[in-house]
Each structure stands twice: as C-alpha cells, then as structure tokens.
Amino acid sequence: MATRESEHPSEFPERIAALDSLLDHRVRLAICVLLSRYDRLSFSRLKELTGETDGSLGAHLRKLEEAEYARVKKEFVGRKPTSWYALAPKGLAALAVHLGALTDLLSAAQG
Amino acid sequence: MSGTTNVRDDLGYVRDVVSRSERSVFPSGIAYLWAAIGLVGFSLIDFAPEQVPLFWTISSPVGFILSAWLGWRHAREAGQESRREGHAHMLHWGGLMAAIFLLYPLIAQGALQNKAIAQVILLFVTLGYFLAGVHLVPALKWAAVAMALGYVATITLDGFAWTVLGVLFAAGLVVSARAAGDGRGNARV
After folding, report:
1. What mean pLDDT comes out for the span A79-101?
2. What pTM value is reported for the model?
3. Which of A63, A87, A102, B81 allows an S-S link to A35, with CB 3.0 to 4.6 Å?
4. Do B1 and A77 touch (CB under 8 A)?
C-alpha cells in the first residue's frame, strides 16, 4: 500500500475533472448504463426501472438527447405510440470514460 | 469521504436498476406453448406410438419459430429489446434442436432403439432446460427438475410412464412460467 503514491488524494482533482458532468447524475448514469446493455428501451420501461416521474425522466432524457448521447425513435407498438431510446456512439464513448474515471477515483480513495 | 460515499450510493442505485432490468425477460406464453406440445407429444408414446415421429418432426420447428416470435413480441411490449439476449436464446435452443436431429443417424444405424430413443432425447432436453435455467432464465430449472423426475418415471413405471412424464413436463413449465412472471410487474425470479 505504501507504493501507491501516484494515487494520493492530491490527484483527486484530476480524476474528478475526468468525470462527465452530464453523467454525474445517477439517473442519467443509470439510463446510459441500461442503454449500453440493451439495443433500445421504451420510455415506459425506463420509467419503470428508474422509478422516476414522467417529467423528471423526460428532462433527463432530453439532456442526453441534446448532448447527442442518446437517440429517440417514435413507433407504434400495437396501437400505442412508443418512444424508443438507444445509446449513441458519443454517449457510449462518454460512458466508458466516465466509468473509468469513477473506478480510478474509488480505487484511489481506498488507497 | 462523503464524496466517495455518494459515488458508492449512486453506483448502488445503478446496480439496482440494472438488476431489475434483468429479472423480466421470460414470456410465459412460450412456457405454455411447450407445456402443451410436451403433454401431447410425450403422452402419444403411450397412446399412439406410430404418430410420435411425425408429431415431433412438425411440432419442434413450428414451436421453435413460434417461440422466437413470442419472445420478439414480448420484448417489444415490455419495452426492452436486446439482440444479444435473443441471439443467446437462439443459439441455446437451436443448438439443442440440432443435437436432437443429429441423433437420427444413430437411430437409422440401429445404435438407439425403441424406448431408449425417447429416453436419450429426454435427457438432452432435460440438460437443455437445466442449462437454460443456469444461464438464461433461472426459473427454468424447475422444468428441468420435473423432467428429471419424468425420466425416472420412464425407467421405473410399467404403464403410462410417458403420460406421467408429459404431465410432469407441462407442470414444470407452468411452475417455471409462474415463478418467472411475464415481465409486466407480476411475480418475478
């Protein structure tokens, strides 16, 4: 443990800087992790899984769309209009960087 | 340390959300379809053995295609689509069907005869359901247990052993379906 000087808390600011501010919110992080595991998820399914209200989830998804982290496609399933969300390549790359920074941060904190 | 505590809390939340998403991928319609096919197909061995090869040759591929369609429809209705999961199911069940069809040369050569043919196929299917229970849908282990009991019945019982197996097979699948739920908020694995 004594050799872990490179992971001293003095490097925390660097690691924190590597975190993606958009993915710093746990709901947006959860949405991106889910979208990285499945091809696409409907708004209703995301609402069921995250436990968020329509308004709150919609706001989080809009931010991800505006940053081009997620894409939306509207389709009818039976007679029901459904919004399907998928992770965009930019979102996948950002998620990988963010999770890497989180892992580093937690490892450094454990010393 | 409160910062890392928050990070841990957030990651715990993400883990819970992901874990919930993994619990609801089993369309009960597939279990009921194969419960009906198995009940009829196995009972036929006792009541009309000459019809058995024709029944299974038709019902296996038709059941496979119907299952794939039910799975696709369920994923759309549940709002959660995954090619990776669909691919895993196709490989698993397609591999099981291919293994069973590869028994035909052994049967044609006479290496497997009479009751042993059905028993070997039953062992293949039992193993297939058990491995599906381990890797794909945990609740399917119940169906594998029922099939293993049915296999014992085919060895120990003299009369209507295959009908007993058919009933056990169907009951095992119904129990599995109820244990797994239908992915829309019912009881889950």
Report:
1. 93
2. 0.77
3. A87
4. no
d(C-alpha B58, C-alpha A30), whole Å: 45
Distance from CA of B22 to the nearest CA of A (A): 10
Which positions in chain A touch B1 (Cβ < 8 Å)? 109
Contact yes or no for B76 and A44 at CB 8 A:
no
Say how many C-beta atoms besides its own lie within 10 A of residue A33's C-beta.
20
Determine how many CB atoms are found less than 10 A away from the CB of residue A22. 18
Give yes or no for A71 touching B (CB within 8 A).
no
Tally of structural domains, chain A:
1
- Residue A5: what pLDDT? 43
A45/B80 touch (CB, cutoff 8 Å), yes or no? yes
Across the interface, whether the CB atoms of A102 and B7 are under 8 A apart is answered yes
**For residue A75, what are the domain limits?**
12-106
Identify all chain B residues contacting A106, using CB atoms and an 8 Å cutoff.
Answer: 4, 7-8
Task: Provide mean pLDDT across the span A1-16.
Answer: 54
Question: Which backbone phi and psi does B26 adopt, to 5 degrees?
Answer: -110, 110
For B109-125, the pLDDT digits (tens) are 999 888 898 899 999 99
B27-50: average pLDDT: 93
- Contact in structure between B171 and B20 (CB atoms under 8 Å): no
Residue B182 has pLDDT above 60, yes or no: no
CATH number of domain containing A84: 1.10.10.10
**Out of A16-20, A74-78, B57-61, B86-90, least confident range:** A16-20
| Residue from the list B1, B14, B77 with its beta carbon closest to the beta carbon of A77 | B77
